[in-house]
Write a structure and sequence with these properties.
- This protein is globular.
- α1 links the parallel β1 and β2.
- It starts with 10 loop residues before the first strand and ends in a 6-residue tail after the last helix.
- The protein has ten helices and eight strands.
- α1 runs parallel beside α2 and α1 crosses α8.
- It is α/β, with parallel strands linked by helices.
- An eight-stranded mixed sheet has the order 3-2-1-4-5-6-7-8, sandwiched between helices.
C-alpha cells in the first residue's frame, strides 16, 4: 500500500468496478487508504448476463495489497439496487464518503435503426443507474455534511459520435444530473463532478475498424490505460479537492482537460418582436458564423496524445 494515505478513513463505492476504468479506480482508491465497495454484476459489454468473479477478483487484489474492500453485485438500474449498494458500504464500513458512478453498457446502432430496448437499456444503466446510487447516498452525505460524487460522462455526449444516440443521450444527461446534484447539495458540503475518459475498455471495443484510419485510431486508444482516469477520480475524492464542484473534466493519456459548459455566445433583440421571416432574414444569418459544425469526438481531439 502507498505510504501517503490521501483517502484514509473514507469509504467509497465504485460501480462497474470489476473491469477497466472502474477496476483501476477501485485499486487506486484502496492504495490511497480508502475502503472500497466494488460493485459489478459482471455482465457483458451490452449489459447482459451476470458473473460475480470480476468484482471478487478486484476485492481479492485489494485485500492482498493490505487494503479493505467488499464486493457487491446489485444492479444500478434498479432503485432498490442503488439502496443496497450504499447499504453495503454502511453495513461493512460504517459510513459512505464517495460514489464513483462508472457502471456502463453499450448497444450501438444508427439512430433510425435503434430499437427501443437498446435505447432504454443504455439509459437505464448510465443515467438512471447514476441517479439510483447517488440518490441512495445523498441522505447520508446531507446528514454528515460531506460527500463526493464522481460521474463518468463522454465526449460522445459532449461533442458527438456516430451510432451512439442512446449512449450520447445518457452521457449528456449525466452532465445535467451532476450539475443539479452539485447545486442542490453544495450547502451540505457535497461535491459533484464529471469525467469524460479516453481509455481503452471493452465498452469501446465496438468501435469500427473498417478502414486504416479507424484501425490507427483504435490502436492509439488502446494505449490509453484506465489508470490515467483513475488518478483524477481519486483526486476528486480527496478533501484537498473539496472546492471543486460542478465541473466537467476530460482525461486523455497524460492530458487533463476542463470542458466549457453551455452559455449564450450571441444574441439578437428587436423591440417589434420576431416573425419567422425576420428570424430567417436577420437572426440566422447573424448567428451563422458561430454555428457549431457536426463534428465527432475524433474531429475535435485530432492530435496525437503521445
Amino acid at each position: 500500500m502507498s505510504d501517503k494515505q490521501l483517502l484514509e478513513g473514507k469509504v467509497i463505492v465504485v460501480t462497474g468496478a470489476g473491469r477497466g476504468i472502474g477496476r483501476a479506480t477501485a485499486l487506486m482508491l484502496a492504495a490511497n487508504g480508502a475502503k472500497v465497495v466494488v460493485n459489478d454484476i459482471g455482465g457483458s459489454a451490452d449489459g447482459s448476463g451476470a458473473d460475480q468473479s470480476p468484482a471478487d477478483e478486484v476485492v481479492a487484489e485489494i485485500l492482498a495489497a493490505g487494503g479493505e474492500a467488499v464486493a457487491n453485485f446489485n444492479s444500478v438500474t434498479e432503485w432498490e439496487g442503488g439502496q443496497a449498494i450504499i447499504r453495503s458500504a454502511i453495513e461493512n464500513f460504517g459510513r459512505i464518503d464517495g460514489v464513483v458512478n462508472n457502471a456502463g453498457n453499450l448497444r450501438d446502432g444508427i439512430f433510425h435503426k435503434m430499437s427501443e430496448a437498446d435505447f432504454d437499456s443504455v439509459i437505464a444503466v448510465h443515467l438512471k443507474g447514476s441517479y439510483n446510487v447517488s440518490r441512495a447516498a445523498a441522505p447520508h452525505f446531507r446528514e454528515q455534511g460531506s460527500g463526493t460524487f464522481v460521474n463518468m460522462t463522454s465526449t460522445s455526449g459532449l461533442i458527438g459520435n456516430f451510432g451512439q444516440a442512446n449512449y450520447a443521450a445518457a452521457k449528456l444527461g449525466i452532465v445535467g444530473l451532476s450539475k443539479s446534484m452539485a447545486l442542490d447539495m453544495q450547502r451540505y458540503g457535497v461535491t459533484s463532478n464529471c469525467i469524460a475518459p479516453f481509455a481503452w475498455s471493452r465498452l469501446i471495443g465496438s468501435i469500427p475498424t473498417d478502414s486504416d484510419e479507424q484501425k490507427a485510431r483504435v490502436a492509439k486508444i488502446q494505449q490509453m490505460t484506465p489508470d490515467k482516469i483513475a488518478t483524477l477520480a481519486v483526486t476528486l475524492c480527496s478533501d484537498r479537492a473539496k472546492h471543486v464542484t460542478g465541473q466537467i473534466f476530460g482525461v486523455r493519456n497524460n492530458e487533463i482537460f476542463l470542458f466549457s459548459q453551455p452559455r449564450p455566445i450571441r444574441s439578437a433583440q428587436t423591440s417589434e418582436g420576431w416573425t419567422p421571416e425576420t428570424v430567417l432574414d436577420r437572426v440566422l444569418p447573424a448567428f451563422e458564423s458561430d454555428f457549431y459544425p457536426l463534428e465527432r469526438s475524433g474531429d475535435v481531439f485530432n492530435w496525437d496524445p503521445f
